[in-house]
Each structure stands twice: as C-alpha cells, then as structure tokens.
Amino acid sequence: MKTTQGQYITKKFLQYTKDLTGIIQKDFPNFSKNEFMLSQITKINEEVGELSGEVLASVGYQRAEKLQKHSKDTLASEFADVFITGLLLAQTCDIDINSALEKKMKVLEQRYKI
Ligand SMILES: [Mg+2]
Question: pLDDT per residue over 27-85, tens digit each?
C-alpha cells in the first residue's frame, strides 16, 4: 500500500479543534504560548493515563468499581480524548498534521514493507 497525498484529518475537524483551542485558551488568559503548550502536554498525559485505565479494565485488571463503569464506549471515549488532545497540541505547535501523518506513513511503509 502506498501513501497518497491526502487530507487525513478533515478541514472541518481541524477547524473544530482550532475553535476548541480558542475556547480553552480563554480559561487561561495569562498563559504564555509556552505555558499553554506545557499545560497541553500535561493534559495529553492525563488522557493517556485514563486510556490506560480503560485498557486495563478491558482485560479485567481493574478493581470492581472501575470494571462496572467500563464499556466499549468508555474505552472509545478515551481514545478520542488522546487523539484530540494530541491534535490540539500539534496545532499550538504550528504542526501541519496532515503533512506529518503523510511523512510518517511513508516511513512506516518502508519499515514494514506495506
Ligand atoms: Mg479522558
């Protein structure tokens, strides 16, 4: 499979996450760009932790209280949180995520001969 140039993340979704960043930034009006980036990477780690908890629950390695709350939907929700928080930080870092994805896909194609 060869990567073709494309819009992997849609313009509509990119605009949605830019709008979301604008709203979130209003909660931290005194943050510099660097402080905002540091808060975002911390948030990604928080979300990765929550995803970890859901994965543990999916294989039964959580206490009963957490197992009762776990479902395919809660697992999916945490995947979405990790994806979105990562995209928000990428935008703050002025990363063209579609270009970055395309370049990474080409690297993976060569590495794994896909
Ligand atoms: Mg979460």
Answer: 999 999 999 999 999 999 999 999 999 999 999 999 999 999 999 999 999 999 999 99
Output the CA 83–ligand 1 centroid distance in Å.
10
Look at residue 21 and tell me if it is in a domain: yes
The CATH number given to whatever domain includes residue 87 is 1.10.287.1080
Residue with tokens 């209280």: 65
* Ligand 1 center to 107 CA (angstroms): 30
| pLDDT (0 to 100) of residue 1 | 67
How many Cα atoms sit within 13 Å of 35 on the Cβ side? 7
Distance (Å, whole) CA 102 – CA 76 = 24
Q: Is residue 6 part of a domain?
A: no
Distance 12 CA to ligand 1 centre (A): 22
Query: Is the pLDDT score of 19 beyond 80?
Result: yes
> How far does residue 63's CA lie from ligand 1's centre (Å)?
18
